[in-house]
Write a structure and sequence with these properties.
There is one protein chain. This protein is globular. The longest helix is centred in the middle third of the chain and has 33 residues, at 419-451. The chain is 41% helix and 15% strand. It is built from 33 helices and 29 strands. By secondary structure, it is of the alpha+beta class. Strands 3-4-2-1-12-11 form a 6-stranded mixed beta sheet, with no helix packed on it. A 6-stranded mixed beta sheet has the order 5-6-7-8-10-9, covered by helices on one side. It starts with 17 loop residues before the first helix and ends with a helix. Among the domains are: 101-319, Endonuclease/exonuclease/phosphatase (Deoxyribonuclease I, Chain A); 324-391 and 534-593 and 620-636, no CATH class; 397-451; 954-1049, no CATH class. Strand 28 (849-852) and strand 29 (855-858) form a beta hairpin.
Amino acid sequence: MISNDNPFRPVKRFVYSRNQLYSIRRRQCVPPLQQDTIDTPKAHTIWRFRGNRGGSHVRRSISTIVSFRGCYATSQLRNPNALGSEDRQTVRVAVRPSPLLLDFGLINARSVKNKEVVLVDYIIDHNLDLLGITETWLSTGDRDNVDLGRLKPAGFEFRHVPRLSGRGGGLALIYRQSLTVNVERVDGFTSFECMVCNVSSNGKPCRIYIIYAPPPIRRLFIDEFSLFLENMPVSSSNVILAGDFNCHVNDIQNSTASALIDAAQTVGFTQHVRGATHVSGNTLDLVFSRLCENIIADVVTDSLQISDHYPVLSKLNMAKPSHPVHNFSYRELNKIKVADFIRDIESSTLCSPVMSVTGVDELVHIFDSVLKSILDKHAPLISRSVRLRPNTEWYNDDIRRAKSLRRKYERLWCKSGLHVHKELYNSQRKLVNELMTSAKKDYFSTLIHNCGTDQRKLFGVVNQLLSRDKQLDLPNHVSMQSLCDDFGNFFKQKIDKIQSAFTHVSDNKLSNNLNGSDVNRNIFSATSKFDCFSIISESDTHKLVLSMKSKSCGLDPIPVRLLKTCIEPLLPFLTNIINMSLSTGTFPVSFKRAQVRPILKKQSLDKNSCENYRPISNLPFLAKLLEKIVSIQFQTYLSQNQLFEPLQSAYRYGCSVETALTKVQNDILSSLDDKRIVMMSLLDLSAAFDTVHHGMLLDRLISRYVVNVSALTWFKSYLRDRCQRVHFNGVQGSSFSLECGVPQGSVLGPLLFSLYTAPVGDIIRVCGMKYHMYADDTQVYIPCCPSDSVRSCAALESCLMKVSDWMFSNRLKLNHSKTEFIIFRSRHANVPEDLNLHISDVCITPSDQVRNLGVIFDNHMTMTAHVKNVCSSAMTCVRYLGKIRPYLSNDAAKSVAHALITSKVDNCNSLLAGLPVSTLNPIQRIINITARVVSRCPKLTNVTTLLNSLHWLPVESRIRFKVMLILYKSLNGNAPYIKEPVQPYQTRPGLRSASKQFLLVPRTFTSYGDRSFAVFACKSYNNLPLEIRNSPTVNCFKSRLKTYLFGSL
């Protein structure tokens, strides 16, 4: 104590032991104040009653936030008499502003799967930076990805450590993206689960251990927890232990709880939670920190009941991260008055008489500059900086008012402690949850309804509903400019590395090899030549502009949707640009500049490796329009002169992946039916589109496709002097020239690539092999007798070596390590076990199954592996649909089910024709489950009635529908190679069957033959009424066929 006569005398310290301090600690209740103690402050008019929000029945201590006190004048007090009647002077104290502290929450959720809306709303309402969750009940793997996405408010991340075995358990942390967080599992303990979260905010670290100890708590937990504390790194600072310990620390007679507290205090930890954290009145959720570190400023227990546990809220002595600032630019396009916009176009130089221009580049420059200036006038570019805060689009005033009333009832209950007030609070809490769920349902149902038939918009809404990330995962980088340059350098160096393998081969040798490798090219000699393009009319331009997709990029002067709205006055000038380009053989320079946006190939890949990104090129809309016109005219010429590679299915009208695989499967099944085997090799090319040699492509256009004069000049201008630059968030990298390759993201690029690789088909045909091509995917196969397998394998090797040599001479890299080999055979065929394929010193062993254009072929052609893969993928989407079904109307649920599930089931399902019912049953079960999810019917509801109400065919009828549709299209000009094995049934004139137009059904010997397209399709087609087979259009055929199949159920 301080002596009165000597105020500067040092303070005498009070000394006490640890046990003496504990002896005065409050245990059960706070003793009441004596009356004289109360009368003294009342007499001095400074008596104030400080309420307790939790109610006296909770007996929690008053929480105090330690912070810097603000500056104020004493004259501004509500009651000036509180300090007595003496004269007072205003005293102003210079203090630092109070820093915002980090908000950390803890909750035992008892399954987060049904509490996404409540938890997200709680994080936003309480402005939490960190939320630790125990008992997430999430599983390992990707099963709960939808739940993970929906648990993240905007600007937050979610990390979890699920229980490795059994149900329940699991730990998680939801944190702001502006925080640096690293999460790891703590293994080695059997009595509790633990995850460590290393958190850093503004350079200050914190180490949070989230713990869950499942009941019953026994001595093993105390021993393991003590060991855990002993092994904790001493160097770790600002350590917090938080979680559900399932120990009743409020009960001083509980020996387990006392042992837990003693174990923590032994190593310097103290427990901060006071009051009940469970509905039963016990304190189970605890927060520990070291006494010497002062990392925790305040701890309170919230009375909002999310589960049977109450949330525990803490303030940490760490700087609260500020909301990130997002800089963006936009135009208010919706405020544009189209009539005024068109009027300005009509008064501009774009609608004036033809000006004297030097070339098409000047026309394009005028077109772009004038439209940009008009757009700047009507919708100027606005730049803004906003702080990104968590937000929910469906939040409305009704929810806000209901939450305010909930809070009112909560305060009333905490003050009175009456059961009636508790019931009011609980009923209002349930009402708030119902309102939030209903508002979210109405919001997304409206969005899906507005999508109409636009599948792109529909998938966008579904992704938003499933909380799939829209943001681009970027590698760690110093600046956006350097990141763009790094990506640009990587993409260029990748192509240069491939091209460097051909540097030792001279151009003359390449040219000689090119001419010599075009074997059998006279088969495709054209009867005419392609010298020039035809001039188009304004009506042709108008039709093409309206028929193309309304996709825009940063290279377009105005958005494509606005261009289509104002197309009428622009038609003369736009048609003049196109015709001048076609007539002069000049492709505008500005159309050769591409914007590249890398995207991560798979979310599971390392985002810091550039090789895991796929470049997506964007080109101006007018460039695509000009390419579309050239493509139509050039493809017409190729079709009329039969210059297309007959077995190339990519980028051709009437051909698809399914028609290509139907042709290949029919050949395989027919060979197996003849008791032969089929050896197949699937070739893989590295960066095929990016390594096309421009000079060799132009030579092939001349020699093989007879392109000359201005048309050839146009293609030269189209290919040469191209460049690209990587673009991220408004930042552009350096420009890189493209010395080879066909433009990705273009209309003509895929067509030119198929023309460039057409001689591969000539080589394979000369070798006597069968094959099929789809873009850069080539499959070569040879049927043979099992006894002749060795010789046939050698012949296949010889053919592939010739193909490899041709690839090398044409500067294409055949990836031997990714080339696959499979032998299709029946279970009774005897094939040598050591039969391998050797290509360029690479030994390829036969696989049991291969993925062929997305469809899994097994060596016995049972298709069971493919069915399992389809069911697994579809079932994942069924779970997704089940998660979001409460927010969808019936019509919206049907649309989403078709987009996510039935589209997967129907994809290439013609390959499943003729399979046993036992093989198709898993797919039928997927359809049944989907129907129940969409209709929200009990599991015992009759599925046939349910499918009929949804107008869904069973799986066998769906397969039959697809097979007959493919056959109908092939008989009417599509995919001519499908029609080859189909022959009309020849009968004597005068018979009644002559007028029924039957197809010939080939004779078969095994079930393989019955499953082949030539047999199954012809049988099914012959069983159709003649009226259906003679349908005039595809839509009419589909409508009549579906009605017929429903009637035959």
